[in-house]
Amino acid sequence: MSTDAEIYARTTSNRLLIADFLETLDDTQWQAQTLCAGWTVGHLAAHFVQPMLVGFGRFFAVALRYRGDTDRTVDHFTRRLARQPRNELIGLLRDHAADRVNPPRVGPLGPFADTCVHLRDIARPLGLAADVPVEDWRILLDYLVSPAVAPALVPPGRLAGLELVATDTDWRGGGGELVTGTAEALGMAACGRAAAIDDLQGPGRDILLGRLP
Q1: How far is CA 157 from CA 33, 133, 140, 174, in A?
Q2: Could you report the per-residue pLDDT of 155-185, keeping only the tens digit for each?
Q3: How many CA atoms does the CB half-sphere of 82 hold within 13 Å?
Q4: Residues 36, 125: one domain?
Q5: Parent domain of 151
Q6: Which of 18, 73, 92, 183 could be bridged to 166 by S-S, CB 3.0 to 4.6 A?
Q7: Is there a single domain that holds both residue 172 and residue 202?
Q8: CATH number at residue 82
Q9: Domain count, the chain
Q10: pTM given for the model
């Protein structure tokens, strides 16, 4: 099992990788829709820096306005941060890449998961191969199939009765009907991305699809 220090280090590396990737995109790509409904690439760029720029007290105060709805609160801050120029958002991501964010309930694995999943939320619709190292997906998959996984990432029951097996690295988890695919595709599907289902195989594939939003 990875230590918190290792997760922080991987998160830092991924943020810098993402900043480099974002810098390669043109204006049309920056405005393209991502796998996060209602968010463009620019919105996700802003979302990457939101945890480092918005403290818990400020977040909590705005959450009260939304009656504790975390999703609406995150959207509130993301849309405001997305008004900043593109080069400033990328610069902020680099400047704060090493910030250690430890959110309630999910801890360091929350921001780490964001770097893995949200990079592909951008790259998949654009048909681009940008991705984190496969070892990062192995670490994230261990968390996604664990009893301690945050419901915001994997709601209870989504992976019940399924055995996930990666085809590009030595990893398997869970038990039951088989679902196979790359570690990235397994992780994205586990996190609710139906766009990854076509990259999966096995008798459990359609079961998983039926549990996705």
Answers
A1: 29, 28, 18, 12
A2: 999 999 999 999 999 999 999 999 999 999 9
A3: 18
A4: yes
A5: 147-210
A6: 183
A7: yes
A8: 1.20.120
A9: 2
A10: 0.94
